[in-house]
Amino acid sequence: MPLLIQQVPPTQAPIDLLLLADPSEEKIRSYLHQSGCFVASLGAMVIGACLVRPLGPTSHEIMSIAVHPEHQKSGTGTLLLKWVIDFYRRSGAQQLEVGTGSFGYQLAFYQRQGFRVTGIERNFFIDNYNKPIIEDGIRLYDMLRLVLQLTKTECGPE
Questions:
Q1: Residue 56 pLDDT exceeds 70
Q2: Strand (E) positions, the chain?
Q3: Which CATH number fits the domain that encloses residue 56?
Q4: Residue range of the domain that includes 129
Q5: What residues does the N-acetyltransferase domain cover (predicted)?
Q6: What percent of the chain has pLDDT over 70?
Q7: Residue among 143, 158, 130 nearest 61 (CA)
Q8: Region label for 137, one of left (φ > 0), alpha (ψ between -120 and 50) or beta (otherwise)
Q9: Has residue 155 been placed in a domain?
């Protein structure tokens, strides 16, 4: 069965799945209705989701991307991210931004697609979440900000 990736209305966002990427339902709901919502499905089962909110006319931020645990490490997340990148590139966006933990597989996930670290938000996960967020047995404190330029730049690949 082929993977289908498509944009859906925010009202159809799979909140339970998105909670894998952002453990605060309150935070997800705060940016959900201003975001583009994309899902990856196998038949009738949604196995991946991504929310992207506009920052301005040519810049957007990936707020959350998640893949169902049974389908992680299958390439679904990479296909979904590439689809979203292509969607925004075709729409005329100039850059995509994302914030992620300062270590772990998520950082490498974005860097493999060309995102580059542009800053750090110290104590982000302490200041913005009521409960500690633990990744690979280590508590997250700081958020790294990454940017992917969607238009050709002097430093980017040809």
A1: yes
A2: 3-8, 36-42, 45-54, 59-67, 95-101, 116-121, 134-135, 138-139, 143-149
A3: 3.40.630.30
A4: 3-149
A5: 1-134
A6: 96
A7: 143
A8: left
A9: no
